[in-house]
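Per-record layout

source: Nocardioides panacihumi
name: GtrA/DPMS transmembrane domain-containing protein
length: 169
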Amino acid sequence: MPSRHVIAEAGRFMAVGAVSTAVAIALYNWLAYEPYDLWSPLHDHVTWSYIVSHGVGMVVSYELSRRWTFKQRSGTKAGEGFLSYAVINILTMTTIPLTCLWFSRHALGLTSQLDDNLSGNVVGLLLSQVARFYLFRRFVFHRPIRYTEVYDDPSEEWDEPVGEPQLTE
């Protein structure tokens, strides 16, 4: 059974996912379907609209995850977190939701706006959320930051002086 900490982290992860998904879905529908007679640069280009909108959602998700969801975890090298995060997001975004969108459009012949949103933005994103939570915990935000990594332990005694080693004869 998962610990309380993992459950709380998963809850924060889902909240971040909800916010970034809302941003991505709103942008997707504006780009692909031009609601309310507003000008849309990618009108009727559902795949490109999906890629652009979820790229923006990915940036929102990264910042919220880094600052809130996984704030007690850190990568071991500078820059490691973002690169891993981007790779995992791109892979899961292109393989899972786009596969669902492609399958509903081309294999099932479902072409309405509702069908596109259900396949890509509901089924696909739910499946990719599960995959991303596991992969982010495992590869991006993989370990908690320990107190001694940030601050020296004041109770620790130094047995040897710091500096050049002394040669003994």
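summary: The chain has one domain: 4-145. Residues 4-33 form the longest helix (30 residues).
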